[in-house]
Design brief:
- Helix 6 crosses helix 7.
- The protein is of the alpha+beta class and 413 residues long.
- The longest helix has 22 residues.
- The protein has a 5-stranded mixed sheet with strand order 3-2-1-10-5, with helices on both faces. Strands 4-9-8-7-6 form a 5-stranded mixed sheet.
- The termini are far apart.
- The C terminus is likely disordered.
- It has one domain.
- It is globular, with a radius of gyration of 23 Å.
- InterPro entries: LD_TPept_cat_dom, Transpep_catalytic_dom.
- Belongs to the YkuD family.
- Keywords: Cell shape, Cell wall biogenesis/degradation, Peptidoglycan synthesis, Signal, Transferase.
- GO terms for molecular function: carboxypeptidase activity; transferase activity.
């Protein structure tokens, strides 16, 4: 066997074992595919343009990737939802390279992270590890949203799906957007889901993500994301001359009053729904720790005593207190107006730059060395026959009707 043939065979074998590896091929024209006319028409009806800013949300358990775009009033609305073809690992964040976990958290995508010549049809690097991941010692690289329906730590779509998702981002960059936010969650952060997973080891991490989720649900503007004391902080403003250090102490920050009042009202409603969900469904996930077991017993006893009409505390034992401070006025806080919340939130639309992200398409085309995952080990749902089609204007309801009505009255459309 000649030396060139040996090199070719070795190169082919390396590609087969490369997991989410990327290679560059001369197939860039597919990156210029245009969005279907039906989506363009829907965008126009919602007050969006093809080049208006974009953001994306991922939900593992539901197997969904949502695309949101800014309307003329600056607030975002969902324009498309896609069934994720495959994602690897389980619910929970990515910790180390090789753990086959798809990341969870708040990430930033810039033009240099887009790969129009991906061997996985099209792809973009979501920016893992971000500042939070690095501050907490989490490792991994080149985690993508890509086509080809094959995942080893990435979020994989069909080729038709990723062509549309790529087009949304491409058109927004052409319109002047410098970067877009992608939010990756284990599930929709509803009171019912949070109650189901209250005994999961990742619960505290998910509660932290939920604050950013809630800020977006309230303002419909991607939250400003910073990291200090090794945790995410959302829509916080540091004093002039001070900054956020991922591993350092958080500075004394502030928020607009309208956002504080809106969040307090939102959290009060959530606390009620969460308490109700605790008595309606068992916890899901791994067996709780000893401390978690004791808490479960206390909550069960509290629920029984309340059902018998005995005098008990308003909240279950050992649960976090509502966000509203004890010194808050007794009367309901005045509702924030749509203009005030949208105006204050619009200042938070530029996330911090991710560190260690490849600067070029060639660098972004590098891949994780994580081993491939077999189809049977992937927990994501099988795609429906129409998975490649965008579910235009099909935003799911995440809160009870009373909550949606309250938010509608507060902020309007």
């Amino acid at each position: 066997m000649t030396r060139p043939i040996k090199y070719a065979l070795l190169f082919s074998a390396a590609l087969a074992l490369a997991g989410c590896n990327e290679t560059l091929e001369d197939i860039a024209p597919k990156a210029e595919r245009q969005l279907p006319a039906s989506i363009v028409t829907a965008m126009e009806a919602k007050g969006m343009s093809k080049s208006s800013p974009v953001m994306m949300r991922i939900f593992k358990e539901e197997g969904k990737l949502e695309v949101w775009k800014a309307k003329q009033n600056g607030r975002y609305d969902m324009i498309a939802s896609y069934d994720i073809c495959k994602w690897s690992g389980k619910l929970g964040p990515k910790f180390t390279e090789g753990d086959r976990q798809a990341p969870e958290g708040f990430y930033t995508v810039r033009p240099a992270q887009m790969n129009p010549k991906s061997s996985y049809y099209l792809s973009f690097n979501i920016g893992f590890p971000n500042a939070y991941d690095r501050a907490n010692g989490r490792t991994g690289q080149h985690l993508m949203v890509h086509g080809a329906c094959s995942s080893a730590g990435c979020y994989s779509m069909t080729d038709d799906q990723v062509a549309q998702i790529y087009a949304f981002a491409r058109d927004s960059f052409k319109g002047g957007q410098r970067d877009f936010q992608i939010q990756a969650f284990p599930f929709r952060m509803t009171p019912q889901n949070m109650a189901r997973y209250r005994s999961d080891p990742n619960y505290d991490f998910w509660k932290m993500l939920k604050e950013g989720y809630d800020h977006f649900e309230l303002t419909k503007v991607p939250p400003k994301v910073d990291v200090c004391e090794k945790r995410y902080v959302f829509n916080q403003v540091a004093p002039e001359g001070q900054s956020f250090s991922p591993t350092g102490a958080c500075p004394q920050t502030s928020q607009p009053d309208s956002l504080i009042m809106a969040y307090q009202q939102y959290q009060t409603q959530y606390d009620k729904a969460f308490s109700s969900a605790l008595g309606a469904q068992p916890a899901s996930g791994p067996a709780p720790s000893i401390a978690g077991h004791k808490e479960a017993l206390l909550v069960a006893d509290w629920s029984k005593r309340r059902a018998r009409g005995e005098r008990v505390s308003r909240e279950p034992p050992s649960l976090a207190a509502p966000v509203v401070a004890a010194t808050a006025p007794a009367q309901p806080a005045p509702a924030a107006t749509a203009s005030s919340v949208a105006a204050t939130a619009s200042a938070y639309t530029t996330p911090p730059a991710p560190q260690g992200v490849p600067d070029t398409v060639e660098a972004a085309a590098g891949a994780s060395a994580e081993a491939p995952v077999t189809t049977g080990a992937v927990p994501a749902p099988s795609p429906r026959p129409d998975a490649a089609q965008a579910e235009v204007a099909a935003q799911p309801a995440a809160e009870p009707k009373s909550m949606r009505r309250r938010l509608w009255n507060m902020f309007g459309g």
